[in-house]
Structures are given as structure tokens and as C-alpha cells.
Amino acid sequence: MPFDGFEIGNFIYIRLDSVLDVVKAVFEILCITYFIYIIFNLFRETRAWQLLKGVLLIVVITAVANIVELRTLAFMLNNTFGFLAIGMVVVFQPELRRGLEQIGRSALQVFFNVDAVKSTRNIADSAIRACSAMSKTFTGALIVFERQTKLGEIIDTGIVLGADVSSELLVNIFTKNAPLHDGAVVIRDLRIEAATCYLPLTNDSSVDRELGTRHRAAIGITEITDAIVLVVSEETGRISFVINGVINRGLSEDALRNQLIEGLEEFAAPARRISFLKSKAK
Fold it and tell me: How far apart are CA 271 and CA 112, in angstroms?
């Protein structure tokens, strides 16, 4: 019978005798690491984050109690995890359900879904049409597109909508004197996640003094995140494209659409390549 490993104290050391064993071990480590990363991402923008930090603290204390042989404390803490697991499922059921929905819309799904590029372009078209309509009526607007950097803290300052993106809805949100017109709209995962969100203003003294609060907020959020922002000026009706702290004004509607699509499709690159290969095959 082959020898698979040996045990020292509470630790089991696995013996790797072949390249296949090494590959399997590395694969397992990567899977576990990715799983932990997903869990942290799901919890960090919810009220369950505080609970998760408390659980991690209990895990650390339990490990210390076992190592230094504090038997009574270790016994109590070891038997606490079962109740914590049940409590998390019951108390945070909405967060867990939302987390599973997010996994369903994760990057892995985008990788295999060639319709992701089409959806991204539809969203860009809707946003540009809305900005064009509001530009003609001098309606101020501030639309933020979340990319890789999460904007949970920004979303928490507004009113959560969770609505499909349409030019009509965006125009209605920013209509003057409408309840949701003040602040920014945040688009996450190709949906309008929240409205009336507050953005940090830029501290860059070199910014043109003619720019108002909306433009300074757009520059501010793109300085600290990788978000893309569309701004419609209430004074001039001009549409601006903001990314990486740089504001581009005076762009044509087609140029705005192309830049927005390019920025949004950056994270749908695998799907774009699949779509390209399919079109070449035809």
C-alpha cells in the first residue's frame, strides 16, 4: 500500500511523488483560493461583512486556544461554529441569495456567454441616447459605470433601484424636480443599481474653474476607481466622457458611443474574442 503522507501533531503532510500529484495540489490550492476570494467579495458590501469579521476573529482565538491547550475555552469555541453556521443561513438569507445571483452573473458566465458583448453595446446605446436627449433640453445628468473596482460605498449613499437600463428610464430619473434627479446613477452588471448617489469631488487644483460640481464629482470618482462616467452639463448641454481622472469634452455622439463601448467591453474581452471567431467561421 503506497504511503500518502505523515502526521505531526495536528498537521498532516502530504507526500508528492509525481508531477501529477503536484499539479493536483496546485489545482486544489487555486480552487480554494478562488472560492475564498468569491466569498469575501460577496460579503464585503453587505451588513454580513461585520459578522464575517467576527467569525474570523473566533477562528483565530479557537486556533490559539487549541495550540496553547486552553481546553475549556477551546471546547466552547469549537462547539460554537455549528450554531454560527445555522445563524448565518437564517439571519442573512437575503444576502446569501443575492450572492448566489451574483455568482450566476459572474465573470465565468460572461466568458462563455457571447451575448455579453451585445448586451454591453445595448447598454451603451441606451445611455448615449439618454444623454443626447437630455443635452437638447439642458438637463443635468451624471451616470457612473462600475467596472472592476466595486462602488458599494457609493451605492450605499443612494437609493437602490435594480432596474434594467433604458434611455427612457435614465431621462425620467434626471428630469428636473423629479425625486431622483439629484446625484449620480450607478450602473453595475449592466443594470441601474442605484440613483441619487453622492460622489467624492476632485481635489485637483488644475481642473478648469468653469466646471461645476457634476464634472468635479465625475473626475473625483474616476481618480480613485476605474469607473467610467458620462456627464451632461445643465448650463451648456455638453456631454463629457470621464475616465482615469481625465475629462473629454466636445466629443461627437459616435465618438462617445465608441469610447464607452470600448471601456465597458474591456472586461468582456473573452466573449468578444469568441464572437469574433464565430463571425470569422461564418
Answer: 6
pLDDT tens, position by position, 222-274: 988 889 999 999 888 899 999 988 898 878 888 888 889 888 877 554 444 33
Give the Cα separation of 54 and 113 in Å (integer): 38
Residue 215 backbone phi and psi in degrees, to 5? -65, -40
Model pLDDT for residues 40-99, shown as the tens digit of each residue: 666 655 555 666 667 778 778 888 888 887 888 777 877 776 676 676 666 666 656 655
Cell of 91: 439571519
Q: Residue 152: what residue type?
A: G
Cα Rg of the chain, angstroms: 25
For 150-179, b/e burial (b = at least 16 CB within 10 A) is ebeebbeebeebeeebbbebbbebbeeeee
Q: Which of 112, 140, 125, 147 is nearest to 226 (CA)?
A: 147
